Amino acid sequence: MRNDDLHDAVDSLRDEVRLLRQVLDEVREELSWANNNAQDIPAGNGAASTIRLITSMSADPTARDFHVNVVSDEMVAQLRQEAGDKTSATTQPTLF
Known about the structure:
The chain is an all-alpha fold. It folds into two domains: 1-51; 54-86, no CATH class. It contains two helices and no strands. It is elongated and about 75 Å long. The mean pLDDT is 75.
């Protein structure tokens, strides 16, 4: 009888893990879609209004003074305008 209880418990856990995997896959798909389409969503449309585009961040994410979006949008626009069409070794046109 003890083996049956253990077998039932393992089966239950297996079902729970399967469900968690399915939910995580769905969340991953939603986040991927939101990241790929963030610029196409007008500001103020429900949950989409909470999307935050990264304009700048510290080079070392493990540093104590790590920050995201320290540079204002206006400064980013100004720097892009000043740079014009020039590219440098520090630009990263694609990640993959």
